[in-house]
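Fold this sequence, please.
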Amino acid sequence: MDIASLLGIVLAAVLLAVSVITAKGAAPAAFFDLSALLLVGGGALAAMLIAMPLRNGWNSLRVCRRVFFNRRPNLTAVISEIVGLAHTARRDGILALEARLLEVSDPFLALGLQMAVDGNRPEVIEETLRIKMDAIALRHKQGRLGLEQMGRYAPAFGMIGTLLGLIVMLGNMHNPEAVGPGMAVAMLTTLYGLLLANLICLPFAEKLQLLSKQEMLAMEVMLRGIVGIQSGENPRVLEQKLTTFLPASRSAIGVPTREAAQAVEARLDKLLPKPPAQQTSKKAA
């Protein structure tokens, strides 16, 4: 369970409820309107389905569970496993790794080690694994695309609902007592659209993108470790290279610079662009 995601949703719901309850002269029931919810939620969903195939739209909704249930890669454990494999290859030869393949739980790492055991050249292994990484990154991007689409469309449907409400309200101007409630209902759709976009869709897409980048970084560490093992690098030197991907506080050798990790981060930023509504300029660390 991702506590941060759950805590964020609960905190937002509590703050909204407290704001509604403590607002002077506000009736909590006035903030709920079924027709406004149907227009905003259903309209954004319909627009998303128009913009992409049904299967992709369903996958985008299905991957939302990863926001709350996900397994983040442990880079320290990955590096330790690779260094252990490098010691085995150094001591007993690279063919000895075949007996340890069943111990490797990550399929990406197992694939690279199998290619190394089969005698493939390092450049062939790297090219194959990078193709697989790009394919996985593309699948992740397609998975969150539906959420990004709904995040863009929800505020627009909120405005559409507001315009419809204003049209109905202006048609009843002969009844002054209905103007105030009619205006409140008309504004609710804008509120719902903004909440759906900025509390659900776009934050979910951002979390999925973060999880994807973390997975890509772990795969980059595995790739460089596999290539290092195949090239016959000294395990200690290989460990020093891989620990540059860790923050200095977690690095076993205390490397102060992280040029390699920053280069990977830049590559992942190009491969995994942020949702359009959430674009921010990155500052150098």
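The chain has one domain: 32-273. The chain has a mean pLDDT of 83.
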